[in-house]
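User: Can you predict the 3D structure for this chain?
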Amino acid sequence: MTAREGKDVSETGGPVEDSSARAADTPAARPTDHPAYRCVVLGHAVSHGSASLSTGSLSTDSLSTGSLSADSSNGEPLISHDPHALAAALASATDGAVRDLPNDSSDATSRPARLWLAEACVLPASCADSAAPSASSSTDASSRRSMRDLQAAVDNADTPVSSAKARRRQQREAESHLARLLLGELAAAQGIQLALADWSPRGQAPHHPALPAGFYVSIAHRHGHVLVGLATLPLGLDLEYRNPRHAHDLDARIAMLPTDARERLAEASHLSETERLDGFYREWVRYECKLKYL
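Assistant: Here is the predicted structure, written as structure tokens:
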């Protein structure tokens, strides 16, 4: 689903696919066999000091290699295509220029910027990309094991259903349920108890009445793969998998992006078809993150 369809953009969105193309998918060519793209938009970049995570606006070269972007002169949020690396950097930072980011939505002028992330799959075998713990993960190994154990609580994930549409709906419901379980685990690790039953329902922005002021959450899920974040600053997360079929009508898909994203991709027109597709997905998840962040 996408923001342009009037759906909830606080959880996940993806490049529009026609139903016939999705029906042609087979277990031998799972969507999650292809590369995954992640992005996070977090808080506001610092406007003083030189020891900042900001590296300037996204350039042509960073379409394939860059991980951080922000225009600190305009106080824009941090944007990273490696959310786990950003979370680890914030956790280990000791300089105030990195640790204390202005938070315009709080009465406090600044607070320690922290980001906690969790990833899991509704069915463990379906998402090889997130099966192995990452060295840059912001949760320790014991937390990751605990979160994977929670997948058993998603009791409708593998129930047989009669239609592809019903299966997709059931999978989205299972993804949303698992996302809220993971958010509960992240919050509990910070001493915050969030009862599962009190979360806002699927289709609405993730909200919990017991979440303290100054904490923010975001959810992304795609093809059974769930990514969630808890932060001390406003954030938006997105997750998407590459679909090789999108290379056939890439120009039309790029036209769906906002002007600044199209301009960045136009500057990279010399890249190969695969590299342009990679650039499109990086711009897409960036765009979706900003929608959720706002």
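The chain is about 30% helix and 15% strand. The chain has a mean pLDDT of 73.
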